[in-house]
Amino acid sequence: METGTTIRLSFLARRKRLPVLPEQPSGTVFGIVWDACPIPQGFVCYIVQFIERSRAKIMGLVSGDGRVYRALAPSDDVPADEDACLILVRERGNRVGDVYVKSDNGRLVHTSAFRGSTAGTMREVAEEATWNTEHSLVYREFMATMFLRHCVFHAPAVHVSATDDAGEATVPRTEQLAAPVEIFKGFREALLTDAISALLFRIERNEHPSGIEKFAHSLFSEIDLARLRTLVTVGEVSLAHIENMDGFYINLNREAMSPEDVVFLYGVESRLNRVLAVLKRIGVGLSPASTSPSEEACSLLDRMGFEEVTSHVGRLIREGDHAPRCSWNAPGTVACQPGGEWDVRMHVAELCEGLNLLVRLEYRFDYCEESHRIALQFTKISATSMPSSLYDEASSSWTDVDDGARERAAAEYGCRIVMVLAAAAFAASPTISNCLVEKHDPIGQTYRSFAFNRTAFMVDLLPKALELVGVPLATGGAASALRASETSERFRRIAAPERTAAPRDDARRLPEALRDLLHADFARELEVVEDKDDEFVMRFAQLQGEGPLDPAQAEAKLGAFIDEMQTACAVSELEEDRPVRTQFCENHLGRILLPLFIDDPSVRVLRAPDALFFAQYELCSMYLNCGAVEQAILEARRLLDMATTSMQAHFTLISALARQKMFDEVIDVAKHGLRAAYDRDAIAYLFYRLAFAYWNEGDKLTALACYRLVPAGEQIAAVAQEEARELMNRMGLAEPLGFAEAVTIAKAAGVPIPPTDELYNQVADAAVQLMDAGFLYLAARCVYAMWRMYGKDELGVISRSLLFE
């Protein structure tokens, strides 16, 4: 039998020997100890093998909510729920229920039943007599002996149907299925509406559906499929399974639907995750199920998912105290400051994103390093995400939950989430002393806010949150506990105004590391947005209208206008006592990326007028439209010279060069563009142009690789695929290149694969240092780009939290 660390028991350590069990190896002594070594909050004892009077080996850990975990050493870290090896599923006022044991393949198997309560004595219930059916024990001893018998001594599993004193069945049988059942079959491939309809059809056609199928049918048959079909059509609705949270996520276009439609979809998403949560609790997950608990047991497991939400509170506090700082403390080549803006904000996001709740948690937050305060706002949990029916054991049928009860349950669940988010906030950093959590109702535009002091939360609300684990929502325990914390204060931006100022309004000097990284000395030098009343912009707007009327005169006026602005730029450069370069950037991120193309670290950047870029582009377009391609190429080169990171400048020059069939230069310009590309649209266009250019240059294999690297789903992708098929036919190939193979071929030809490491590191290093230095406006743009590049959920949360007004 596997045992763990041997601990020495002090004279005062509380311990108790267990009776000798029938299956127990000769000469061994087992027992329980508590108050002897570190133990997680909410846990009641360790199961041990006594070696001698003062020494014991750790074997198991008993929680206060009906779970036992294997343990090899003392620890105050709370184990994950899914690691439990023995679980009690309670029914009927917690006085009877099922016993589940995790098998060797990781699945939960129903072994027997139990009767009793944790406050009194407990006894196993089975058709065949066992040691535990003949002995009534208090909770600690009952759990320890059950663990030893079922998980250590490997007693055979007995599938039974227990009976109460009246002889009526009270504990449903765990069913061995004739064939495995895959509840979410086809959900990855089919439209969401079709997948749900197919699931319902399969279950209704089955003459003897299993308990988990009946449970899934009950939840999914509540969905208004007609409404869902409409939203799938107009709202770009699609279903994703997020691996790191092991849950379903519905993607949707919010702009195409009302807030009520969004809430409806969240209700659909909740039902998907509720069924998945039950499947995970019985050890199946998305895999086919070969055994199934009863429909009633599934309903109870579902209810437990809602009632146990505050179990996250203790875990969050302990993780915050003992876990290393955020795993993304150095996303590029530069590490964040421990306890700084990046560290705290990323830690908050990581803790919240790791919650994996049954309902969609939408939130944003702000942090003030100077005052050690944090504020969070989350969208109110809607009643549509709560159970609309519960399985009634007396009638063996589902009973409806009225709207009022669902509203009250949602309100209580929301209050428990308030506790969880406050715990995440305080866990993010020991320096955070105050926290505000606000529930926001986007439909009714109502708010409820709660303010917490760190010490008061730890002393008063942390124990209350742990007491609420497993307590029915109908009791309203969290709502009562939070009344004293309610405040009229609203969620708002709490960071100091200068930290969120746009570069135009920011006179602060950059730290030395940022000056070297960004080729700028002051924040205002990083501004790229022109003044709305800029004289040049207004004059250019007047010139634009003259082109169609008199092209020759428009050409002359544009040329003179460009010369005037170039002269002004040259004068500004001559007035500088340091090396400078005048550049136009399309956005703030383009300015952050510009140093990738400047070799001399001492060079500083002057901002080219927006009107100069627009006028140069207008002149180039005029030449292209009238067939003066050579002149257009000349102007397009000038355009790219002054806008090195502009995708529009790259596209314009590529288009002009392709007109002249100068495909070797198209390749050079597209490669240059890929060094600065991070947006999928731009990447798709550049690879498409590269592919066609390589084809015309005779390098068909590299052309095929570039076609393969056009991101799927973009506008140009369909054209690229059609041309790729034609090229494959000419090359005599039947199968397209694999992605990895295409990358290897492209790299061998010197084609950058975006986002390149140098680009990502530049953005990530800027994000970390800008945030830690308190330049949050620019940091937000960098974090947003990082999220677009790699899709890490935490980056999306931080981006939204930094960008909100």
Automatic annotation (TrEMBL):
InterPro entries xrefs: TPR-like_helical_dom_sf
What's this protein's name?
Tetratricopeptide repeat protein
User: Which organism is this protein's natural source?
Assistant: Collinsella ihumii
Database matches in Gene3D superfamilies? Tetratricopeptide repeat domain
Q: Which domain of life is it from?
A: Bacteria
